[in-house]
Specification:
This protein folds into 2 domains: about 35-190, 3-Layer(bba) Sandwich (Glucose Oxidase, domain 1); about 195-230, no CATH class. It has 6 helices and 12 strands. The longest helix is centred in the C-terminal third of the chain and has 19 residues, at about 195-215. It is about 30% helix and about 25% strand. It is an alpha/beta fold. Strands 1, 2, 4, 6, 8, 11 and 12 form a 7-stranded mixed beta sheet that branches. A 3-stranded parallel beta sheet has the order 3-5-7.
């Protein structure tokens, strides 16, 4: 098992947007080219927030009906979830799968209260295929990607914690490193994290040649061919 990345590794990843991280993964982990990120679109209610990077804290929820064992059991599991969220390593990102099938997103687990609690417990943000609410009173700077925005929390309760989840097609295990911004989210394998900045820099230098050529007056197919050739020589 690969060692967990340190704070400097995570901070280095925050310098890039999530599409750049996905591009870099195509270089350092090419077998992950078509998976590891959300496969269905998620909403970014606060698109100007900077990218977040953290260790996944996973959970599943239901909203359509009350917890089958009653309020006491629902409360016990909820508190166990917050303990899971606050445990090292940090910072964390909550990755929460809604299990309600055709009614997915019926009730919002995250709103004013939970965004504040999560942020206070060292969580950088949440990624969920369920719904969120209370956007006007959402914790400042707390990142979110969600499946929908809805007004009620219905019967929302935690079903399970610390399990493998699937959120919008992105399969996540506890302690996976997650990178997310307004475009979406991606799981970053721990064993390639240190190689990503170099790969991202290489791709940026290659792309710069093509972009700069494209923006020049009189850009043509011949100039494009030349730019591609020059770009391919950058290593």
């Amino acid at each position: 098992m690969s060692a967990l990345p340190d704070a400097a590794d995570l901070e280095a990843l925050r310098a890039y947007d999530t599409p750049t991280i996905c591009n870099a993964l195509e270089v350092v982990a090419p077998h992950r080219r078509a998976f590891g990120f959300n496969r269905r679109p998620l909403i970014a209610p606060f698109p100007n927030l900077k990218p977040v990077v953290g260790f996944a804290r996973t959970a599943t929820i239901r909203c359509r009906e009350p917890h089958p064992k009653g309020m006491r059991e629902a409360g016990r599991i909820s508190f166990a979830y917050y303990e899971h969220l606050a445990a090292a390593p940090t910072p964390t990102i909550a990755v929460v799968q809604d299990l309600d099938g055709p009614d997915i997103g019926l009730g919002a687990f995250f709103g004013e209260v939970n965004s504040a609690m999560h942020k206070g417990l060292g969580c950088a943000g949440v990624i969920t295929d369920g719904s969120v609410r209370d956007l006007d009173t959402w914790a400042e700077g707390f990142f979110v990607l969600a499946g929908s925005i809805m007004p009620s929390h219905a019967h929302v309760h935690v079903v399970d914690i610390g399990t493998i989840v699937n959120v919008a097609g992105m399969v996540v295990s506890p302690n996976d490193v997650i990178h997310a911004d307004r475009h979406g989210a991606v799981v970053v394998p721990a064993d390639v994290i240190k190689a990503i900045p170099q790969a991202a820099d290489l791709l940026a230098r290659r792309e710069k040649v093509i972009v700069e050529a494209s923006r020049k007056p009189g850009f043509s197919i011949e100039q494009l061919r030349k730019a591609f050739a020059e770009s391919s020589q950058i290593h």
